[in-house]
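My main concern about presentation is that the manuscript never shows what a single data entry looks like. An entry of this sort, consisting of the sequence and the corresponding backbone structure tokens, reads as follows:
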Amino acid sequence: MDTPLHHVVIVGSGFGGLFAAQAFAHAPVRVTLLSGTNHHLFQPLLYQVATGVLSSGEIAPPTRDVLKRQRNVRVLLGLVTHIDLDAREVTSTSPLGERRTSYDSIIVAAGAGQSYFGNDQFAQFAPGLKGLDDALEVRGRILGAFELAELSTDDATLDRLLTFVVVGAGATGVEMAGQIAELSRRTLPGTFRHIDPARTRIVVIDPVPQVLPGYSDKLSRAAADRLESLGVELWLGRKVVDVDEDGVVVEDADGTRTRLEAACKVWAAGVGASPLAAQLAEDSGAPTDRAGRIEVEDDCTLPGHPEVFVVGDLMTIKGYPWVAQLAMQSGTYAARAITRRVRGEEPAPPFRYRDKGMMATVARFHAVARIGRFETAGLFAWGLWLGVHLVYLIGFKNRVSTLMHWVVSFVGRSRSEQAATWQQVVGRNALRREGSPPLAAQPGTDPD
């Protein structure tokens, strides 16, 4: 009688989950990948979907299509809600109900969600940018603001509609602000008759003292200078304390509060681990950090449970940064470690993250990049950014179409993805009010 193949369950189809699945290509295991979406999301380019540069399909290939030649992998739709460590069983939900899947080993790569620091009511008025639903809603809000501005008949309403607030001065906030500026100053002028889109006001708000925290002062200053040259206002050292339909309330360091009227707000601040991290930590007794990430062993396993690997945004280990490269490398490592066990080989050495640098694009022809000790800003950094992102996009077709859209948007002035419907905004808010989030929703665990 044949011995059943070792069964590995992978939770999540992001960078960690997909790279883990691909690393099992020639392993003597069977793999079940459970995800709340049917696609792998190239999250670093979500802001370009939100601002009309790229289509959703170019950054979100179907997971089944990516893995179709890998016969030992089965992909199932389902939002994982619980992992029973004692029974070695995963519970997932879908519109067809609840499903339980047993495992011999498991790789938990559920990723991170948006954190509003205990103010989840802000999501209705200031969506984050963590999934395709977010990007399409943001695009509807941005383009909808211009359409409504064309209809406005008084100056106060016009000013509110043409004021855009980006909360957060990290990479997502910087990239988002830069693209809104270019959309309003390069793409849209001449397409309206009543308004001048170039008069748009864009404000970036963050308690940090500089944009792109984590980058050097040199690169941070280069990014700030480029944003300010585009007309972006940087309200640094201030925090958003309230958000409603018509604007935000901002508090200075001395406690002074200012109200800023703005119809469109984008939340690019705060990242929290998936609720699965809290459940696993409680059941296993593993410690977590302030963002809710689990402190794993040196081999990325859950303390006391060597069959459970926690990778990517759900884990914290040796102070490694919360970036896509960490998810890719830890996912691949976990898969290879399991394969070695199944084959009876020596245990894998401790996980070691290899820092390949950091990059952020500010506007067309301008980015900042750090590779090792080498730092650069401007056109050369932008070229590096283009190359790296093309390499990591999944699929030849996606790379070609993405490159063509970049030519249209960055060399020319047009953007091919400017279609948006108000239903994308209204529908998601209706789901929020009913307490029925989309299947893919994975809200973050707010830091203490």
